[in-house]
Design brief:
It contains 2 helices and no strands. It is an all-alpha fold. The longest helix has 22 residues. It holds the Pfam family DUF7503.
């Protein structure tokens, strides 16, 4: 795992614009998960 994180760290050091891209993607995915969870429906009653 540390080798993978080192490779990612080196990549981000060489390409700093990808830090913003990855942050935006993470933010978008977290919001999409919240929206999907909020629209879960349940049927109660007979």
């Amino acid at each position: 795992m540390s080798q993978e994180s080192t490779r990612l760290r080196e990549f981000l050091e060489e390409n700093p614009k990808w830090i913003g891209v990855m942050f935006s993607a993470l933010l978008l995915l977290s919001q999409a998960g919240t929206v999907a969870a909020g629209h879960g429906g349940s049927m109660t009653g007979p």
